Structures are given as C-alpha cells and as structure tokens.
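To close the chapter, one final illustration. This time we ask the reader to focus less on the individual chains and more on the assembly as a whole: which components sit near each other, and how the overall shape emerges from the parts.
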Amino acid sequence: GNSVTQMEGPVTLSEEAFLTINCTYTATGYPSLFWYVQYPGEGLQLLLKATKADDKGSNKGFEATYRKETTSFHLEKGSVQVSDSAVYFCALSGGANNLFFGTGTRLTVIP
Amino acid sequence: NAGVTQTPKFQVLKTGQSMTLQCAQDMNHEYMSWYRQDPGMGLRLIHYSVGAGITDQGEVPNGYNVSRSTTEDFPLRLLSAAPSQTSVYFCASSYGQGRNYEQYFGPGTRLTVT
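The assembled structure is written out below.
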C-alpha cells in the first residue's frame, strides 16, 4: 500500500539556519511526491512537487529531490526565515488524485 | 476567485447531534474531497467526488455522508456525531483526476464533539 513517514517535530531553528525535514515513502507503482505547507490558521498550500524519479521540485528557496533508490523526498532550505514557521506535510499521490500524507512537522524559526 | 471556502470555521456538537459542513469552490474543478486532520496522524481521506453526481469512499468514511449535486458544492454530513469525530476537517478540489493535478485546500473547520 501507500504510506509516508515523516520526520517528527517540532523543529526549532534560528533565522538563517539550514533546514532538512526527512520524508520517506512506500508506494505501489510510480507516485508523484509533494510538500504542502500549513501556515497558522490556514489550509494547506502546495509548496513543491516532483512527478518522477530524479526530479527536483523547488519553490521559495525550498528544494526536494525525488530519490527512487532510497524512496525519499527530503525537504531542504539553505537559510530559513521567521516567515517560514509553519507545519510541513510530505505527501504522495498514488493515482486517482488521492493524497497520502505524513504526520506533519512543525517548524518554528526564531529571530 | 475565492478558491475553496468552508463554513463554519468552528463548531461544537453534543454526541448524537447531526450537522453539515459546507464546502464550495469557484474554480470549476471537477474533483473534490474531504480530509480529516488528527494529531500525530496527518490528513486522512474521508470521501471524494470526481464530478457532479459521483462520490466514493476514502480511507475513513464511516459516520459521514456526502453528495455532489453541483460542480461547486460538496457538503459533508455527520448524521450522529461521536467524540471520535472531533477533528479538523479540510475540503480540497482540483482541476482533474490524476497524480499531476495540484489540490487546493480550504481553511478548515474545527469540530469538537462533547
């Protein structure tokens, strides 16, 4: 079946620190992989995606590479800002447009 | 465009009461879905619809009903609320069906059942 395992939080970083949030997956077939972000009091927004192996998704300074050999899709950012404080969800789409989510990682960036 | 809207934002129910969570989108999306978000469990799919008149069950459908009479609206009904249904509910929509289509989420409804 399909599942996503995500790094547990919460994560607290100082501004300009390097961020990594780990995500691994189990899937049948060839899923698409996503990172969604949820800012306080809001719904989820797509941050980035990758649809096939070795694809790199990027947006707002965040990056993630679809690694089929390690079944991973780790989220990275070189220099975080206070405005990046949010909950980050890794997800996969196994077909029929249904998403399978990880448990979410809360990131807090302090000045 | 307002995107995906949900009402109410907060709701408290007593066990056994019924209610309907409203969801609407103005993007002419064919695909709509409902998720619940629980601590430590991420989001789980309740029901989804691939177009007006067509609905199907997701991972956790028990205790919930849906219907899709128009493209724009996809209400979620709780017939007899239980404390286990305390959660945050998100509605989502997308243009098409398939793994490459981005889903757009509403702001959520926080439901407490006492």
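The mean pLDDT of chain A is 92. The longest strand of chain A covers residues 86-93. With these observations in hand, you are ready for the problems at the end of the chapter.
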